[in-house]
Please model this.
Amino acid sequence: MPSLNPIKILGHLEFNIADKRIPHNWKEPLEMPARSHFARALTPEEKIAIPNMPIPFYKPENLNRYHQDACNMIGGQFRDFHDAIVDAVKEAHDQWRMQAGFTGLQVMALAAIGTPGCLVGPDLEPLIKNASGVASMEGNEGAYRDAVAGGVGKCFKAWQDAVTVPGLPWYPAFVAFPSPMAPPTPNVPVPLIMCVSPMVVQLLVPGIMRKMMEQSLSQDVRDKDDDKKYKSLFKCIEATLIVAFAIWLVSQQVTNVMGTGPIPTFAPPFVPVGPVVGGTNLPGPGQHVMA
Model:
């Protein structure tokens, strides 16, 4: 199974279009003498500054050096957090892939049937929190990390628990097999998106994952954020992850799901072949969704 391939610049662009300003609610003085005092307080060199980020996360209310320096510093911190938490989700997802697998499938001739719950794997939330690049975060960063982990983990778990195998033609050899028992046989590879989950909306529809993140953020952090910066942060993370999950679902091939089962009609020489009836698959964590 291929890794997530997040396109981080999508999140950078999403934050940029939110048009967040620093300082928040600051207005340049327009009336005299305050206007004159403000103009004289800055040297010509201090009145103009240039962003140090190609896609700024924050924009200055005034183009002076001090406002721009604040935008560069705070915007850089938010950009670095976005990139680090996206990498953490990717790392956690890779660990999930190594342990996930299908179990409890029914095999009837060529068809494989799996009910909700047939795809099992570990919870993403603790894996994200303990990822190498974010495990040591503290303060607001730690709160943001936990909120993203909680939101992504809940959405991914909802998708996983609802995954089904809707009678996919995985075992064509089992239609007419010349033996009383079909040996373990790998399935015909198919894209993971064909294993239908009605809860895929949790991963692909804008707004759902972001809301889960916001609900997972501590109330204290939300109350202290007058500018609601966390909303823009979660929205840009969601934008990056939605595209990553969409690409992964259609590019991932489900392979090596080993099916087996009896052929009750096998009765040579009169009935030398028959279909598998009431078969199942061999559970194998990390085999079915890892390749």
In short: The first strand starts at residue 20 and ends at 22. The CA atoms of residues 102 and 119 lie 5 Å apart. The two ends are 4 Å apart (CA to CA).
